[in-house]
Amino acid sequence: MIQQLLEMDIKDFRVLDALSQVPRHIFLDEALWSRAYENRALTIGYKQTISQPYIVARMTEHLVSHTSKRGKVLKNVLEIGSGCGYQSAVLSYFAKDVFAVERIKPLVTKSRENLSKLKIRNVIFKHADGFNGWEEDLKFDGIICAAAPRAYPEELLELLEIGGKLVIPVGNEGQQKLFVVTKKSNTENEEIIHEEVAFVPMLPGISNGEV
Ligand code: SAH
């Protein structure tokens, strides 16, 4: 898997290192274990998928690209659409605390179990709608979103510290692009549009598991 990421131009060794330390099969049903280290999205039930390792790596690279320091280079990170918790586990290597929001309740339970199996203790999961942010008075130095809204919610930028970044896929299915928005000051944001991507849509409201 790491070899494939290198071939796909993931260059940040900190990110490659984190992905090599998170066993991806833990997040999947046993029937899929033989495919766990392929560079593919795979089903996790409830019509959702675990993200492709490549996109997890690319988004994490963007989030930490402002520094080449090692270790926990971020303080608080908000993750929207944490699914089974795979990206959350990767983020746990880069942030002091990860605040993860998922709209499908059984996936929240699953992700808590998965991270406790890995003894990762700096991720807090919440069953909530990511359109509402974290709903507590917290600022983040990074926000990463694994579901695509039609346009990124401007309110998310208000949750960022100056210098913080929002990494988010934007657009309708079949025409999404990866956006990286950096909050330069309280009045100025820098928006860079990167490659085409394919994410599930960001849906409003929460669900108890019915699909
Ligand atoms: N981060 C996961 C990817 C999960 S797929 C991984 O590492 O594999 C994206 C997830 O976003 C789905 O589980 C979906 O339920 C969730 N999602 C979609 N809209 C959401 C919203 N408004 N708030 C929170 N989660 C949302």
UniProtKB/TrEMBL annotation:
One of its GO terms (molecular function) is protein-L-isoaspartate (D-aspartate) O-methyltransferase activity. It is found in: Cytoplasm. Gene3D superfamilies: Vaccinia Virus protein VP39. InterPro entries: PCMT, SAM-dependent_MTases_sf. GO terms for cellular component: cytoplasm. Keywords: Cytoplasm, Methyltransferase, S-adenosyl-L-methionine, Transferase. Its main location: cytoplasm. It holds the Pfam family PCMT. Its EC number is 2.1.1.77. One of its GO terms (biological process) is methylation. It is an enzyme of class 2 (transferase). Belongs to the methyltransferase superfamily. L-isoaspartyl/D-aspartyl protein methyltransferase family. PANTHER family: PROTEIN-L-ISOASPARTATE O-METHYLTRANSFERASE, PROTEIN-L-ISOASPARTATE(D-ASPARTATE) O-METHYLTRANSFERASE. This is Protein-L-isoaspartate O-methyltransferase. It comes from SAR86 cluster bacterium SAR86E. The gene is pcm.
